[in-house]
Please model this.
Amino acid sequence: MTTKERYKGVIAWFQENMPVAQSELRYNNPFELLVAVILSAQCTDKRVNMTTPALLAAYPDAEAMSKASVEEIYSYIKSISYPNNKARHLSGMSRALVSRFGGQVPASTEELMQLPGVGRKTANVIASVAFNQPKMAVDTHVFRVAERIGLTTGSKTPLQTELTLTKHIAEPLIPTAHHWLILHGRYVCLARKPKCDTCGIAPFCRYRQRQQKKTLCG
Model:
């Protein structure tokens, strides 16, 4: 199977079986999404969704959060992984939004990456989810699933994966494809025990094909 055939098969299956795919983080506007994504690093979306309501009730926008101390922010997010670092990031991010961008979350990844706590992956998430731009955020799920399925080959870094995926996926589909891969990795293509027997894209999966070949040869 060629790479082109694999992409075509995988995308077609997702379009038919998962036409609507979106973030599991709860948010109402770009600022709330940015806060949630910063908190989600090495933390489950479920835990983030349990934490953000009280935090955002206290600090509903960048202006309000920028006036809070790191310690005050920490008190709302202490159940999250790495709360000390994330409290500092939220404080710095909100202050930067106020001082540089009039309290509004910028749409460009270049400007987003100027904010404390915002790297390329987070910037791509915001640009894609909040502003529907053709940006592919590569987290651990996307990195693993793309390589296992065969959408990438020998990818060493998230940036390599991002560039390969955006090269082969049509721009209008990229924001949705980001969620296809995340959700597939979260619920089907698990890190240790992928559910290959019930996986809809198994016919196009390089890993599955290799496993079947081993079984036949064994």
The radius of gyration is 19 Å.
